[in-house]
Amino acid sequence: MISAFVFGSNVAALILRGILHPDMQLSNFGTRENSEYPGFLDGFFICLDFAEAQKFNIPDDLDDNMIRRLTRSLFPIFQDLKTFSNISYFRAGFVSKCGYLGRELFSNACNSGFSSFAFLNDINNDSMTFSYNPLLQPEIIREWVDFNVDDVSPLKYRSLIEYQRSPERHKISLRNMYYLDNLFFMRSYMVLSELKDETSIIILILNMAMSSLSFNLPVTAYGLFKKCLYLDPRMSEVRQACKDGVKRAMSSGKITNVTDTIISRYLDNDLFGFIWILDDLDRLIPKDEKDLEGML
Amino acid sequence: MNSSQTANTIYNIEYIEDFNCNLPSNSPEPQKGKFLYKSSVLTDEEAEEIINNESRCHDLCECDSNNIIIGELYRFRGVAMLSQIYNAGAWLVQVKASINGLKISGKTSTENWVSASLLNNMLDIGFVSGEIFFKALDKNKNVLTVQFLVVKG
User: Fold this and answer.
1) How many angstroms separate the CA atoms of B146 and B104, rounded?
2) How many CB pairs under 8 A join A and B?
3) Helix (H) or strand (E) holding A47
4) What residue of A is the nearest CA neighbor of B122?
5) Is the peptide bond before A59 cis (omega within 30 degrees of 0)?
6) By the number of CB atoms within 10 A of the CB, which of A184, A197, A296, B97 ranks highest?
């Protein structure tokens, strides 16, 4: 799982450097371990077949065609990684490192029928027609590319408060702050799950939910608050914060019976897979409630 | 410029040695246009027969798009858009074209394309050009759902 996450992070780094590799099969990549943190997060990533790689200017060259090509370049990886679990870890690494652009590319894959729903046997994926048209905001991508996101790591900031007070977080604009927080959260989850620190994981999920609510992702926020409660936090203030959060997310009007049913079904999923489902639910624009009901 | 002028001005060649155009009887057949894609429902011989027997396929460019007959075979020469899609747990290649206002769409299996790397390159640029043979399966308004049989480069 760590390797899929690291791989996603490294593929994102490739794209952020303005490199399009149209044939990203796993066999075309290798890794050499980072001596400072062996086997963890930032192992040296080696591209074994660079023959077809092309350079592009990021973000200036990101027109519809380039978005299509970048999205498609991820498909060989999905084919190789195969399982929902592997791809969800790849996605977590990719989206966290690539920020706004990474999330848009993953959402764009929905237009090709590739979403989290395609892996869920009890969801009728055929009934849903995704129509996602990314209207990229180049200035957000430019800031992210110029920003040294590698400094945002639990290896540098050992606690959430330490990270929140960090100069890095205060240097970035509000439009990218959600993505920077997301990067810190996801990297922290990798560490905490290795340490099996369940109490900290619950607090981390609560903070991810709060962040999603602030960023106007009510379905993601709702799902994460519910997951937090499902994990049965012992601290009463955490329980209360989750209950309050559920109410606030519901007041958005985007939580329907169908989304609630889907979320309840997958509460015990691994966090990264669950977040992928939630993000797709947030992105989904059903024609009406009946359209949504067709998923069940 | 006529052909004799061309011959006088350009083809000023001194023949060094004559050559024989008569190929030996055991030489291979001249290579025909390759299948870029061939549906798995066809054998090579059946595919060749569809391509070579013009009476078996209607030329789409000469057809009225309102009079497409479901179940019949059609062909056209031109460009078709390619995209990769994930459908029912499998990666497929969607092929779409637009001829005289008629939209043609069908899904193909990746393994039925002649070469994985060629397909990858075509998907990257987003289109294939050549002679395309298909069977009409269903027509809804101006969208014709088809089963692609052969794409010949």
Assistant:
1) 7
2) 31
3) strand A44-47
4) A22
5) yes
6) A184
Which chain A residues are within 8 Å of B84, Cβ to Cβ?
72, 75, 112
Closest CA of chain A from B26, distance in Å = 40
Contact of A22 with chain B, judged by CB distance below 8 Å, is answered with: yes
Domains assigned to chain A? 1-146 (1.10.510)
- What is d(CA A186, CA A180) in angstroms, rounded to the nearest whole number? 10
- Domains by residue range for chain B, with CATH: 35-152 (2.40.50)
pLDDT of residue A26: 80
What is the CB neighbour count within 10 angstroms for residue A176?
A: 18
CA distance A42 to A3: 10
Other beta carbons within 10 angstroms of residue B152's beta carbon come to 19
Q: Are A235 and A243 in contact (CB under 8 A)?
A: no
Contact flag B124-A69 (C-beta cutoff 8 Å) = yes
**B100 lies within 8 A of chain A by CB:** no
Contact A72 B121 (CB under 8 A): no
- Look at residue A92 in the predicted model and tell me its pLDDT: 97
Is the pLDDT reported for residue B19 higher than 60?
Answer: no
ipTM beyond 0.85? no
Closest CA–CA distance from residue B128 to any residue of chain A (Å): 15
Judge whether residue A37 has pLDDT over 50. Answer: no
Give the whole-angstrom CA distance, residue B111 versus residue B93. 10
Q: What percent of chain A clears pLDDT 70, i.e. is strictly above it? A: 85
| Nearest partner of B75 among B92, B52, B93, judged by Cα | B52
- Does A112 sit within 8 Å of B84, measured CB to CB? yes
Assess A27–B contact: CB distance below 8 Å, yes or no: no
Percent of chain A with pLDDT over 90: 57
Determine the pLDDT at residue A268. Answer: 95
Quick check: B126 contacting A, CB < 8 Å?
yes
Entry pTM: 0.80
- Residue A45 β-bridge partners: A31
